[in-house]
Amino acid sequence: MIYVSKEKAEFFGNDDKSGFQYPIFDKDLDLSIIKINGRSPKVGYQTNTECKELLYIMTGSGILEVKGKEEKIKFKSGDVILLDKNECYAFEGEFEACVPCTPAWTSEQHKYVD
Q1: Residue 69 CB partners (closer than 8 Å, separation 6+)
Q2: Phi, then psi, of 9 in degrees rounded to 5
Q3: What gap in Å lies between CA 30 and CA 100, rounded to an integer?
Q4: Fewer CB within 10 Å: C terminus or N terminus of the chain?
Q5: Coil, helix or strand for 32?
Q6: How many Å separate Cα 50 from the centre of its chain?
Q7: Can you tell me the distance from the alpha carbon of 32 to that of 19, in angstroms, rounded to the nearest whole number?
Q8: 42, 15 in Cβ contact below 8 A?
Q9: Omega within 30 of 0 (cis) for the link into 103
Q10: Tens of pLDDT, residues 36-51
Q11: Taking Cα atoms as reference points, which of 33, 8, 12, 34 lies closest to residue 23?
């Protein structure tokens, strides 16, 4: 068993995204709480080359845009989004989400693309 109190969570943030990374030190799974305010990323798209990201929308709402697809997905509190590895996406809105990733997320896996 691993227990991590909120006080041990590591804050991260920039203009469009902030949150807390919970240090569970497990290579197969991790967890973050993210807040999006506006568009993330500001331009282009983002992708993860190694992990799947599951978002449970805790509060708020937004739009998910997947590169190469015309449909934009509107989501709200209580919805779940599964992003597969190498999927290029962008968010727009104001929301907070609980995001477990498998395998565990690292900054080296996270890429920005046009």
Answers
A1: none
A2: -65, 145
A3: 5
A4: N
A5: strand
A6: 14
A7: 7
A8: yes
A9: yes
A10: 999 999 999 999 999 9
A11: 8
How many CB atoms lie under 10 A from the CB of residue 20? 17
Q: Do 88 and 45 contact (CB within 8 A), yes or no? A: yes
Phi, psi of 7, rounded to the nearest 5 degrees = -65, -20
| Domains within the chain, CATH numbers bracketed | 6-113 (2.60.120.10)
CA-nearest of 57, 114, 65 to 92 is 65
Closest Cα partner for 87 from 64, 106, 104, 56? 64
2-39: pLDDT as tens digits = 999 999 999 999 877 899 999 999 999 999 999 999 99
AA letter at 56 = Y
Both tokens of residue 95? 């929301």
| Residue 89 identity (one-letter amino acid) | Y
* Length, in residues, of the chain: 114
Q: SS3 of 78, please?
A: coil
